[in-house]
Design brief:
It is a single chain. The chain folds into 2 domains: about 200 residues, Spore Coat Polysaccharide Biosynthesis Protein SpsA, Chain A (Alpha-Beta Complex); about 90 residues. The N and C termini lie far apart (about 55 Å). It has about 325 residues and is of the alpha/beta class. About 45% of the residues lie in helices and about 15% in strands. It has a 7-stranded mixed beta sheet, with helices on both faces. It has a 4-stranded mixed beta sheet with strand order 5-11-7-8. Helix 11 packs antiparallel against helix 12. Helix 1 links the parallel strand 1 and strand 2.
Length: about 325
C-alpha cells in the first residue's frame, strides 16, 4: 500500500501538464501512487498521461471518455485510491520537491495539512504573493468558525485523511475543497506547513484563478469583472447555507455538532428564503440565533471574533462598511 494517493484529473491541460507531472514524480518522498484521469480533452492531455503511465509504474491511468466534470472524476479516483492519505494536484501547477514529505510529516495527528501556494503567472514568473496573502487571510491552528467565512485551504495544497472524503461533499453548491477543510477543522484540525510549497499558476483560462489575478493586477479590472463580483456577493448567503448543510451531513463530525449545523442551516434557509434584504428585524434575529448556537464551536476567542465580525454583514446581506451603520443586537445579560 502506498503512503499517499495523489489525484490528478485533467482537461485540456497539455500546455503545462508535463511540467507538473515531472515535479510530482521528482518528489523526495517516493512512496505514492499518482492516479490520473482525463475528462474528455480535445488536446494532447490524454496522450501525455499515457506516456507517463508507460514509463513509471506509480502513474495509474484510469480509463475515461466524455466530459463528466472535475468532481465526478475525483470521485472515480478516490474509489481507486489505496492510501490512507490523499493529495490533490492541479494540471497546471508545479510542486516543490519537498512538498509531499513536508505534508506527511506535518499532518501528525491532524485531519489535514496544507502548505503555501506561491502564485505564478502563465509563463511561470513569480507574482510575489502567496494565495493567502492575495486573499488577505492567514491561518492559525485554532481556526474553525473563521474558515466558514474565509477560505484558505485549496485542494492543490492539501493532504488529508481519506475518511474526510465523503461523496456528499462533492455534490454540494460549495467548493469541495472548502467543505473538506471545514470538516477537517471541526474534527481533528488543520496543520499549516510552510515548507510544503506549491507553485500555483494563475491564468485567464481558469475563471476562479482569473478573479484572483484581477486582485493582483487591478488595472485589468473591467465592467464584466464588476458584474461577476456583484454576482458572487449576492450568492454569499446561499454559499454560507450550503456550507452549514455540508457540515450537517458530514459523518466525520460527532452527532451533536452535526445537529447544531443542521439547525443553523434551517434558520438560514428560512430567513434568506424571501430573497430580499429589507427585513432587518428578521435578520438581526437570525444573527442572534447563529451566535447562540455557533459560539461554543469556536476554536478560540480570536477565531470567534473574526467570525462574528464577518457574520453580521452576511446575515444582513450588506457590505461590511454598510453593516456597521446598523446597530448589532446586544448580547443577552
Amino acid at each position: 500500500m502506498p503512503a499517499i494517493s495523489i489525484l490528478l484529473p485533467t482537461y485540456n491541460g497539455s500546455r503545462y501538464l508535463r511540467e507538473q507531472m515531472d515535479s510530482i514524480l521528482a518528489q523526495s518522498l517516493k512512496d505514492f501512487e499518482l492516479i490520473t484521469v482525463d475528462d474528455g480533452s480535445s488536446d494532447e492531455s490524454a496522450a501525455i498521461l499515457d506516456s507517463y503511465a508507460a514509463t513509471d509504474d506509480r502513474v495509474i491511468r484510469l480509463p475515461s471518455h466524455d466530459n463528466r466534470g472535475q468532481n465526478a472524476r475525483l470521485l472515480e479516483s478516490i474509489a481507486q485510491a489505496k492510501a490512507p492519505l490523499i493529495a490533490f494536484a492541479d494540471q497546471d501547477d508545479i510542486w516543490g520537491a519537498e512538498k509531499l514529505q513536508a505534508l506527511q510529516t506535518g499532518i501528525a495527528d491532524r485531519a489535514m495539512a496544507f502548505g503555501p501556494s506561491h502564485l505564478i503567472d502563465g509563463d511561470g514568473e513569480a507574482l510575489g504573493k502567496t494565495l493567502m496573502e492575495a486573499l488577505g487571510v492567514s491561518h492559525h491552528p485554532d481556526d474553525r468558525l473563521s474558515i466558514l467565512r474565509s477560505s484558505r485551504v485549496s485542494a492543490h495544497a492539501m493532504l488529508c485523511r481519506r475518511e474526510l472524503l465523503e461523496q456528499s461533499l462533492f455534490a454540494s453548491r460549495s467548493p469541495f475543497d472548502w467543505l473538506i477543510s471545514l470538516v477537517a477543522a471541526f474534527s481533528d484540525g488543520i496543520a499549516y506547513v510552510p515548507g510544503a510549497a506549491t507553485y500555483h499558476r494563475l491564468h485567464g483560462e481558469n475563471s476562479h484563478n482569473g478573479a484572483v489575478l484581477k486582485k493582483l493586477r487591478p488595472w485589468t479590472f473591467g465592467v464584466d469583472d464588476l458584474k461577476a463580483e456583484i454576482a458572487r456577493y449576492r450568492g454569499k448567503q446561499a454559499h454560507f447555507t450550503a456550507q452549514l448543510e455540508g457540515l450537517a451531513g458530514a459523518q466525520a463530525l460527532d452527532p451533536e455538532m452535526r445537529a447544531t449545523f443542521s439547525l443553523c442551516a434551517a434558520l438560514c434557509r428560512e430567513t434568506f428564503a424571501d430573497g430580499t434584504q429589507g427585513n432587518i428585524g428578521k435578520r438581526r434575529e437570525l444573527f442572534g440565533k447563529l451566535e447562540d448556537n455557533l459560539r461554543p464551536l469556536a476554536g478560540s476567542d480570536r477565531d470567534w471574533y473574526f467570525f462574528q465580525k464577518q457574520l453580521w454583514p452576511l446575515t444582513l446581506g450588506l457590505p461590511l462598511h454598510a453593516a456597521r451603520l446598523v446597530p448589532r443586537p446586544r448580547p443577552a445579560a
